[in-house]
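Job type: complex structure
Entries:
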Amino acid sequence: MNPQLIRGLGYITASIFFIFGLKMLSSQATARRGNRISAVGMLIAVVTTLTAMEDIRWFWIVFGAGLGCVVGVLAARLVKMTAMPEMVGLFNGFGGLASLLVGWSEYHGKWAAADPVSLFTTVAIFLTVLIGAVTFSGSLVAYGKLSALIEGRPILYKKQNLVNAFVLGAIAALGILFSVQKLDQLSGGGYALVYLELIAIVVLALVLGVLSTIPIGGADMPVVICLLNSYSGLAACAAGFVIGNNVLIVSGSLVGASGLILTRIMCKAMNRSLANVLFSGFGSAVGVKAAGYQGQANPIAPADAYLILEAAHNVVFVPGYGMAAAQAQHVVRELGELLHDNGAEVRYCIHPVAGRMPGHMNVLLAEANVPYEMLVEPPDVNPTMEMVDVAIVIGANDVVNPAAKEDQASPLWGMPIIEVDRARTCIVLKRSLNPGFAGVDNPLFFKSNTRMLFGDAKASIASLVSEFKQ
Amino acid sequence: MELNATTIPLLFFVFVLAMFLGVELIKKVPSQLHTPLMSGSNAISGITIVGALIASSREGGTAIATLLAVLAVLFATINVVGGYLVTDRMLEMFKTKAKDGGKP
């Protein structure tokens, strides 16, 4: 058969698998099968490509792909569930880097041969390299922040947006210079210069990725991870335009679009615009200081907390990043079961942006075997919050901060929260009174119906569990 | 595919339709599935491996072009293999939970 035809049919089949895979990933019952179908689609795409290629450099391909498989399998097997956000961030960065390298390699080949290159192709190469590099360095910064290798708080300096605008402007200018060159008509000096322009674009784009990610605080990471995910799709898509390949364009834009949708969902959950997340350095140490809530926090001992819980009929757990950090999900499930056996209605209310990644808490509670039916979303709980005897806040902070409703000066103003302050009693598990990741004070800690259970979340819950068992 | 005045508009046509399809596909995802969806779609973005394979064996490619392409194969493979496996691992946990579904 004609290799063109084989390739066309193979790529269409792969695209169908990706589409079905994504569709099935959006429903609980079919998600796992969907992921496998999408993996089969990837295999079809790779096999089709190899079948339709002539003169394959097998040694190098087996070397690169073999090493990649080993690293990928090891990383995926060894990563702890709590470290999942940074792992996904890192894989994402590698995807961006791969697209960057594809664009670069294509250009190098054409440059070395002084091929006539159309304006369309040079623009596509420019975009591939730019988006790929921003994805790569941005994901590395996100990885560093999530794994606490670098400061999680927003890193801000004066004239930050001005510097970013300057870098972006420089990239755009270089991009235009780079794209309009006709490789086959260049003389010696210009010929070397155009390659330097490409290198400068790569370097500046890497810098831009870092600069645009460092001012974003840990609490905003879910948005950034979604956005970078979208970028890596768009980078693959741009690479598809460079080599004129349909399957790259289809899959890249599917990922790009889904990443944008998720980004929008995350922004909505925080009642903020994307521009606000990206440029405001939200919750920075130098940012607006709200009222500076003062008052008396009421500490509580585990033995007294047990007495409150023992009498409760309706309990809601509100997990946050603190649960992930303390690896407390298993003891939390145990406490939930004990409360349930004690006759209480137990639910887990999960805020869409709790944790460091979209759906972070769901993954952890699933790992601890918490039944799916017990997980609820804020709109399910808020209207009947008065009926809740005890709300147990485990290392969540901003998503339960009543300042979002009460204090117009607060940076959180307007964000939909879980209104635990309206529960009859609210027990907050926390290490100290320090503000959360966003650096915003939380008046919840000083409310008359709030009790603070200080200490490591895992140890605190474990002591409650042992109280119950006695 | 040869890039010319006929094929370029076709590529854009495919691009625009796929963007709309992507938006429609993901519109209604329960928040429980955000993480697997993200890491699953992240694995799909490793499709750039196709571009890397093609670039690695281009005829008359210089050593540097091949080296860059092989590196691209390496990183794209990590993205694809790691991404799919991590997603599967997550969804496996969701599965166990569905099995215990009868238990309150």
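Summary: The two ends of chain B are 56 Å apart (CA to CA). The longest helix of chain B spans residues 63-99.
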